Amino acid sequence: MQIGTHSVVTFNFTVSTSSGDRLDSSEERGEPLHILMGADNVVDGLEEALLGREAGDSFSCEVPANKAYGDYDEELVQSADIKMFGGTLPSIGQRFTAQTEDGETVSVRVTHIENNLVSIDGNHELAGLDLHFEIEILAVREATETELEIGQAIEDE
User: Fold this and answer.
1) pLDDT per residue over 54-91, tens digit each?
2) pTM above 0.90, yes or no
């Protein structure tokens, strides 16, 4: 069966930066990844590369930043007075949610602290990076109605 828009795909993967720095793998997680195609379960570029393939296929692909986690946007980096954090001193790398002027909730992380100013970055930590994937497709099947309703694969289906 070829992978299509509403397929459930089980695969092993390794993802690294274009310079070769390993970021994640199914081996490190201890299990393969199960995704529902067409449900934004993986980055667009990888989903496009999976379409039309079958169980047993192994391949590698390059996914440019704009089809992965997006280009890095300097406008998503802001400075905030440390007093905005109340009595809790933030730490570099700390993640939290913030609200935009439009009332939207966004995930940000602390990237720098200096002179009572805290730099927070709303970019995904992999934004701006081209990614390299090594993929081994283990299984492909049609999604169930429940999976389509909830927008994700159920491993035991």
Assistant:
1) 999 999 999 999 999 999 999 999 998 988 888 788 99
2) no
Asked if 157 and 39 touch (Cβ cutoff 8 Å), the reply is no
Chain centre to alpha carbon of residue 66: 12
What is the full DSSP assignment across 93-136? T-EEEEE-TTS-EEEEEEEEEETTEEEEE-S-TTTT--EEEEEE
Closest CA to 43 of 71, 70, 68: 68
Percentage of the chain beyond pLDDT 70 is 99
Residue 157 above 80 pLDDT? no
Instruction: Go through the domains of the chain in sequence order and give each one's CATH number.
Output: 7-69+126-148 (3.10.50.40), 75-121 (2.40.10.330)
Q: Give the C-alpha distances (Å, rounded to integers) separating 118 from 32, 93, 108.
A: 38, 11, 12
